């Protein structure tokens, strides 16, 4: 199993990060992708992944970070991101995207401009994009109608939109990852969307430390909870857990170009 989105560098893991990882490996995970969210954590992430091939990273600017960054420095940060991506070590661009609630501090026009540059960098460096979109799907759809998509693809992280939105993203060639909310009792839209997504485009994540699955909802999430999410998805799809776990793992390996090591038998 591969957790395609886990903020392992979050401060909520500072006290027991090694134990969290030990539990993840014991739960059967073979890899964890840690997305970068802003310039301050790019170098620490690069250091975190050195020497541990099961930990891979993405580098990007999360839209929720933009209100805390001076807009006049956007291009400076993006040029630095370009340089770091050129050094290798990152297997994806992101987390990046659009965030409706953040528009008060970072207008959607600015968010779109920064995201467009992330897409340019993904095309330049031949990397997939880890896409965040929360309450901003109309703006993202408009952008993707006109912007060339990276050949390496887009992964819709923690997808929570409905079926109609999913069909647009499917038509554009996007892949989808689901997190803890698919196990929540009131979940509806993501479950409906899950049923229409092509099997070869499906992945799984924890988004830890957020969005913990049932029965851990309301607590800190961690990568070792990934099997719970796969179990929830399997119930919705009517598939054996082992089959879905294998498929989502194979999909992640293929999407990220075999960046994660194959476990020894």
TrEMBL record:
Q: Which CDD domains match?
A: TatD_DNAse
- The reply on keyword Protease is no
- Per UniProt, where does a divalent metal cation 2 bind? 132, 157
Molecular-function annotations in GO: hydrolase activity, acting on ester bonds; metal ion binding
Which Pfam family, any one of them, does this sequence belong to? TatD_DNase
Similarity-based family: Belongs to the metallo-dependent hydrolases superfamily. TatD-type hydrolase family.
What name has this protein been given in UniProt? Deoxyribonuclease YcfH
Q: Which organism is it from?
A: Cystobacter fuscus (strain ATCC 25194 / DSM 2262 / NBRC 100088 / M29)
